[in-house]
Write a structure and sequence with these properties.
TATA-Binding Protein, three-stranded antiparallel sheet
């Protein structure tokens, strides 16, 4: 088996700083449940969210992790848009 370390950086531009804060607060606890072979660091600067992933996990496991982050992000964004639209 080949040993490897993968580094991935995801940068998201949110429509508002409030949405960025909600996403970070939602993803933080979930990212702490990752196995020992994967480390996820997240920072927020205004409307921008930076997610850095360092992992020696298998490619399928890493793909699942990224897919889970993207799915959660998409769900939060849709819910936030619905709430904002209905509160006007």
């Amino acid at each position: 088996m080949v040993s490897h370390t993968t580094q991935i950086k995801l940068i998201f531009q949110c429509s508002t700083e409030k949405l960025a804060e909600i996403i970070v607060k939602t993803l933080e606890p979930e990212n702490k449940l990752i196995d020992d072979s994967t480390e996820i660091n997240m920072t927020q600067e205004g409307k921008e969210i930076n997610i850095e992933i360092n992992s020696s996990a298998s490619i399928p496991s890493l793909r699942y992790t990224i897919d889970d982050i993207l799915h959660t992000l998409s769900t939060i964004e849709k819910v936030h848009e619905t709430i904002e639209r209905n509160s006007v």
